[in-house]
Amino acid sequence: MTAGPSKDTIEVLEIEQHEPASSKLPAVLETEVTPLLARDLGSLDGASLDNGPRRMSPRAILIIMGVLILIVQCGDQFSQAPLTRIQESIYCYQYWEKEDPTKILVPRSAIGPGALGGVEERLCKISEVQGKVAMLKGTQQFLDCVPSLILSIPVGILADRWGRRPIIVLGICSFPIQMVWQLVVCWFWQTFDLRVAWFSSLGNLAGGGSPVLSALFFVIISDVTTQETRSAVYLRIFAANLCANLICPPIAAWIMTFNPLIAIFLGIVCFAIGCPMCLLIPETLGYQDSNSKASEFQQSDEERPPLASKKDARNFLQRCYEPLIESTQYFLQDKRVICLIFTFVPVMLTTTAVPLLLQYTSTRYSMSFSQATLLLTVKAGVTIVMFLGMQSWIYKLLAKSGLSGRKRDLFLARGSACFMLLGIVAVGLSPNAILFTISLMIATLGGGFPVYLRSFLTDLVKPNKVAELYTVIGVVDTLALMVGGPLFAWLFERGLQLGGAFVGLPFLALGLIYAAVLVFLLKIGHSSKESTLEDSSISDE
């Protein structure tokens, strides 16, 4: 999920990374979610709510979350490709205005917002222009992650104390503001340098940005599900996210043939709709607790002095970080937990590479941005089929075989990492659009990797440590995004200069990282008695 930073990270967060408010959407999501929840979570509705005040059912919470993710992701999908096209148009106009004014179709005095129509788009697929666009977006991604890195730890601690809902509301409401600022900079491009758009990153000070919000969405899902149902629920929520990736790009591509600005306006509307929508999500902190335990928690929390009474900022930070230090010491007791946290690095690097994929496709295969956007829709279509069909069927088949939830998650994580490795390397080497599409489909088969990995890792820690675990994962995710944006932009720029197969240099580098992760995952169940899934301490279910 991303506005400013690819909201595709709420992608869902990620979570990435990164939803139109159509009246039909709730019905669509209900068909995606209802079969699982009606079967697997039905007992949870009654069991968890009988002892306390009546609460919203897990099914209702997950449906609302699915619709919200869909709305926000639609906003991202409608705006990101058109925004990249406008930035390309501006840099292209400025380049040819200086190097060869005969290529200019409309003089500065008559050119409109975004320099659209000032130069033929085919003349913009040169390394000088594409390199600037890549570095602009890579640096934007780096700056977007700075607030996330600073706030992720305090926000994670506060989410376990004050609740998830206030932070979600703040974060979602910052998305339309960030996109409006980027649009203003592109609209008045003759006044502003495009780098002024980087100030949109300040919006992430509200809620911590996409990485933090993605982590909180996963926390909410964990609050209302069990280990046996969690992975399947992740898949269906992820599928809701992917519906936007399937529906919106063709619409955005069609709109871009008229004017990319219209698509950006539509994206901002989707972000704005998400603001009141997020208010429907109830507080899930302590959702599984009995009424008595919840009362004890509230009472003990009230006994603590409010943070506002601490005038010294040092005391505030100390109060935030002390629980995290304790949690880190707990995580260090199991080396697998620490190592598995770092396997999320390639997940976020993949998120970083997704916006670059649009530039890569457009440049290497000489396509317009609207054509490249349409081609990348194949990825979303195959992914939805995988998650709603094949992978759900495989998951159920493994369940019938007697494998525990942990073993199933690890097995599927290994297989997904293998597909990601093969597909991403093939994407970087594909000489034509047909082979590129096939390679993209192979990589898509591994799209469940972060879902299975997160579910497996969640079950290795105590329930009261889940939010803090996700906070640590969020820190690692943020660092990966910060490094990945500028790094892949530089690799892409360098690849353009070298030419040929080197244009796919960012994807070849990403493939090497997935290879290392796959080797680790293959060893984790067999390296020692302590790390063996068959050990009684692990398979004690």
Description:
The chain has 541 residues and is mostly helical. It has a single domain (25-288, 320-524), classed as MFS general substrate transporter like domains (Growth Hormone, Chain: A), CATH 1.20.1250. 70% of the residues lie in helices and 0% in strands. The protein is built from 19 helices and no strands. 52% of the residues are buried.
Short synopsis of the structure:
With 541 residues, the chain is an all-alpha fold.
Search tags:
541 residues, mainly alpha, Growth Hormone, Chain: A, disordered N terminus, disordered C terminus
Which structural class best describes the helix and strand composition?
A: mainly alpha
User: What can be said about the biggest beta sheet?
Assistant: none
Helical fraction: 55-70%
According to DSSP, the number of beta strands is: 0
Mean pLDDT: 77
Shape: globular
- The name CATH uses for the topology is Growth Hormone, Chain: A
- The CATH level-2 architecture is identified as Up-down Bundle
In the CATH scheme, the class would be Mainly Alpha
Number of helices, counting only DSSP H or I runs of 4 residues or more? 19
| CATH superfamily descriptor | MFS general substrate transporter like domains
Keywords: Membrane, Transmembrane, Transmembrane helix
Membrane topology: Multi-pass membrane protein
Transmembrane segments: 167-190, 196-221, 233-255, 261-281, 337-357, 369-390, 411-429, 435-457, 469-492, 498-522
Subcellular location: Membrane
